[in-house]
Amino acid sequence: MSGNITVLVRVRRPLEIGLAVLFHPADGFRELRGYRSFTAACILLLLTFAVRVASILMTSFHVTSLQPEDANMVLEIVRIILPLLSWAVSCYLITSIMDGETFFGNVLLAVAYSMIPYIVFTLPIAAVTLLLTRDELYLYIVLKWIVWLWVGGLLIINLGVMNDYSLKKTIGVTLLSLFTLIICWATIGLIFALTNHVVIFVKDVYNEVLYLQFK
Q1: How far is CA 148 from the centre of its chain?
Q2: Rounded Cα gap, residues 204 and 214, in angstroms
Q3: Are the C-beta atoms of residues 90 and 107 closer than 8 Å to each other?
Q4: Are 67 and 136 in contact (CB under 8 A)?
Q5: Helices 104-114 & 137-163 angle (0-180, nearest 10)
């Protein structure tokens, strides 16, 4: 009996924090400061990816350019999960030198909880598209923007609340984190491009040597 109660408590608290993040974000993230759960972060990120996949399958074909048969699951992971992980790393790097009070696990958990509006509302929006005509596409776009603006707002709020920053400092750290994110992705892109050119050059040289050798 006590074991069932313990399990219930473990399940109930993350749900309560999730509801608080949705409707009272400052209180929710304040509660999250004392709650550490790598499992909860992983579950929320997996739910985010699962919702993305389900929305691709559910969204009516006449309001989206991405059809299920054209979807690439690996690419979808890159699109939805990698930016979140990158943002968590960028925020942690900046907050660690800006008198932050969070560890990377706290940052990752806060980022994962910030995706709750996406997890909760994306599938209902996808279901609504089944009732829309092409002329009502604007409604689908507006609803998607509302969800993503909600997520963006939560990302900013959690940065301030989790680190006990003032509004001014929160905005500054957010901009620095965004700049760090852009620099990191630009660096990765540059390295990938240079590596690709080197590989192509080596292949061309190798093929040229083989051609001259057996000519």
Answers
A1: 11
A2: 16
A3: no
A4: no
A5: 150
DSSP codes, 18-58 = HHHHHH-HHHHHHHHTT---HHHHHHHHHHHHHHHHHHHHH
Decide: residue 21, CB within 10 A, 0-12 exposed, 13-18 middle, 19+ buried. Answer: buried
Rounded Cα distance, 109 and 18, in Å:
11
pLDDT digits (tens, 9 = 90+) for 119-151: 999 999 988 888 877 777 888 889 999 999 999
Q: What's the pLDDT score for residue 211?
A: 67
**Dihedral of alpha carbons 62, 63, 65, 66, sign:** negative
- pTM value is 0.83
In the block, tokens 């509006």 appear at 117
Question: Alpha-carbon distance 182 to 87, whole Å?
Answer: 10
